[in-house]
Design goal:
single chain; 2 strands; 45% helix; mainly alpha; globular; 2 domains; 8 helices
């Protein structure tokens, strides 16, 4: 019979009872929220989390302190590195407001259609292009294909986010001038380094079982396709790396939502 926000732990309680009381207390606190207006300013993410979030109900983006460090961001990094990393993450979360789910909420966080019929039809056509594109990717070392429908929201956010971050970096250079090239990698232009920085934070390795579990249950595409899928849709990437026409990362037909 614990009341909200009152958690009593006795020195005689076993670990089991401490956990039980804690769960009951947390659930009681959550149920109490149903009796009050929705708090759009409540912050329920640990600052140590290395992640970023968009809430359609709050129409808000959140970047915990945990992600504001290398390899995503550093005050000592060249701007091209920061824009390609944390810039792409910021753009990703903003674009979630205009993906297949976030687009259904209005500016006040209410589930409400604010689109014209022609805009909805145009968006649906572009959305289906993304679904088909990613649905044709096969996970390495498995026979499983990416679920294009399940991952469409994250894929739309990835594609829009990198494009927005690259445009933002170009705006920065236009206003402040070209920055020095990255020491040790001077053979690459800063625009090329932008894309290297984006690809860099997706580097990783997982066992086949984990890869299969991800492709079956996760709304995020496997990391390799979060890079290849996005960059193959960007004309700017093909331009700065001089990719041949109709090559794997420069197909003639590109999926563009935003």
């Amino acid at each position: 019979n614990l009341t909200p926000f009152q958690l009593h732990i006795s020195e005689h309680d076993t670990y089991y009872y401490i956990m039980k009381k804690s769960v009951v207390w947390m659930q009681s606190r959550e149920f109490q929220k149903l009796t009050k207006p929705f708090d759009k300013h409540e912050f329920d993410i640990s600052p140590a989390v290395v992640n970023a979030f968009y809430s359609p109900e709050k129409n808000a983006i959140t970047f915990p302190a945990g992600i504001l460090q290398p390899p995503f961001f550093s005050g000592t990094f060249p701007k091209a590195v920061n824009y390609g990393a944390i810039g792409a993450v910021i753009g990703h979360e903003i674009t979630h407001g205009f993906d297949d789910q976030g687009s259904q909420y209005d500016k006040d966080g209410n589930l409400h259609n604010w689109w014209s019929e022609s805009s909805l039809q145009a968006f649906d056509k572009r959305r289906r292009c993304i679904v088909e594109q990613y649905g044709n990717y096969t996970v390495p070392k498995t026979s499983f294909r990416v679920n294009g429908k399940l991952t469409q929201g994250e894929n739309i956010a990835d594609n829009g986010g990198v494009k927005e971050a690259f445009q933002a970096y170009q705006n920065y250079v236009q206003e402040n001038g070209e920055e020095p090239r990255l020491p040790g990698l001077q053979q690459y232009s800063n625009e090329q380094i932008f894309f290297v920085s984006y690809a860099h934070f997706w580097c990783g390795k997982k066992k086949e079982a984990a890869a299969m579990q991800q492709v079956l249950t996760d709304e995020h595409s496997p990391e390799v396709f979060r890079v290849i899928g996005v960059l193959s849709n960007m004309e700017a990437f093909a331009d700065v790396y001089k990719c041949p026409k109709n090559s794997p990362v420069n197909p003639d037909y590109k999926c563009i939502v935003w």
